[in-house]
Amino acid sequence: MASSTKVLENRLAEYEHKARAVCIGVNHLALDAERVQQDELLQKVKQLEAELRDLAYQKTNLPQRAADIRSDVKGNAAALRYLETISQLERSFTVLTENVSETSVQLSSPKALPESVHVKKELSGNVESCWNYVAQLSRLTQVHIRNAAEYQQFHHNVNEVEANLSRRLKMTQPDYVRPLPEEISSAPILANELREHLNHFIHLWGRTGQLLEDSRRVVPVHLRLGGVQNGLSVNTESKGAVMARALLTLAGPNYELAEGEEVRIINNSDDPHFWKVHTSSGIAEIPSVCLWISDPDLEAVKRAIK
């Protein structure tokens, strides 16, 4: 019995180390490989729990330790799947890079343009201008990536703080509070628990202050996803006009926009790639990548205050 218990304890220690030492990478393959390892570890922990159902082990702390490890591994797997959603965006950029390369190679063929056009038209300057425009679009994506990252990080932090506050508050409810010890010798234990709760609440209070400051820099990224119809925001607490700024100087068939010029979005739900906006020349359809919704996200501010 003692030897078998020792073997199980060693397995528990091994699984516990693997659960605690989870390596969270950045790129998709690294995250996916670690998630697979955690899924395999979960199956091993469940198998161990099945072995611990033997009555001989029920009076030990082994079943509880195994349950705690299972909870940790499940949390690791959930965290890795969550982060994989971000890392999977690398595919979009690799596809874009492939499309750019394919376009370059295809247009480099002598057959890409009839010989008569080569003779009658000197397009070298135009070709350079088109590639310069594409390069500018690449620069603009950095703005949108930064805005998206700040938006998601802010809401992640809010979710994290709210979850911790909810858990701490639940721990203060009568059903969760253990009876006060009658022995005076147990008082230091209670004092340490209260001090730990207080320190955690102070930490969370500090984070809420930072969130309020961060909220003023968050832009309403959610409005880029078809959030404007008939000139007003939709699916928001209060409908209102949504303004955007041009991220570069741009000219189209019926408009001219200067970099930084402000326009009102009329509709971005019909076509996510081309938004209908009101310019100084009238209604025009503008590539969405060229527009930045620059006003602060009032809903983010409200959420930080709450």
UniProtKB/TrEMBL annotation:
Keywords carried by this UniProt record: Coiled coil, Phosphoprotein, Repeat
Coiled coil: 31-58
Domain Desmoplakin SH3, chain residue ranges per copy: 240-293
InterPro entries: Desmoplakin_SH3
Listed name of the protein: Desmoplakin SH3 domain-containing protein
